[in-house]
Amino acid sequence: MREGKQYMPIVQLIYSSSVSEGLSVMEIKALVEKAQINNRALSVTGFLCANSYYFLQCIEGESAVIDALFQKISKDSRHHSITVINKREVDNQQFRAWSMGAVLDIDRHMNIVDGFFPDGVFNPSLLSEQTSLEFIEQFSQIRIRTQERTIESLSK
Ligand SMILES: Cc1cc2nc3c(=O)[nH]c(=O)nc-3n(C[C@H](O)[C@H](O)[C@H](O)COP(=O)(O)O)c2cc1C
Predict the structure, then answer these.
(1) Is the pLDDT of residue 156 over 60?
(2) CA of 64 to the centre of ligand 1 (A)
(3) How confident is the model at residue 149 (pLDDT cuts 50, 70, 90)?
(4) Which residues of 27-43 are buried (b: 16+ CB within 10 A; e: fewer)?
């Protein structure tokens, strides 16, 4: 058998956007569930932070796959004012524990939000390349702890 698979760079893309008016939390949850199914099939991983006003999302995977996915996401009417904060090549997928992890109630975690936004209001368009990644990392840590708690309580 020939070893023919071409090397494909892995990229990590972070963008912010505004939630379209009228989109409910239930609709956002449904969107995440669908994204998880799609991403699993594409070996895409990532994390989504949201409140009622803004999305901050990281998607990572093979370069061509991420380009195609981001084109789809950009055309989605469930959000607008999409701004790419960072797109870079990486050695490994950083959020590989999640096909799409999500924290949809960012405002309930003021201890983290206050550390990034002096006025205490989550507005991801104000984040830099570095701070956007740090913000998502901190929320992904919460998600791990929550999952661990869930697993602990289930096993009792
Ligand atoms: C904020 C936001 C994040 C999204 N993230 C993803 C994602 O990670 N993966 C995905 O497949 N679709 C995501 N979508 C949905 C896509 O825009 C699109 O609806 C979906 O990929 C279409 O899937 P389908 O071709 O299987 O119907 C997202 C949409 C929004 C508004």
Answers:
(1) no
(2) 16
(3) low
(4) ebeebbeebbeebeeee
CB 140 within 8 A of CB 98: yes
Q: What is the pLDDT of residue 148?
A: 58
Q: What contacts 80, CB < 8 A, 6 or more positions away?
A: 17, 18, 20
The residue contributing the CA closest to ligand 1 atom 3 is: 73
CB 59 within 8 A of CB 49: no
- The minimum-distance atom of ligand 1 relative to the CA of 79 is 31
For the chain, what are the domain ranges?
10-155
Read off the pTM: 0.91
Q: Which CATH class is domain 10-155?
A: alpha beta
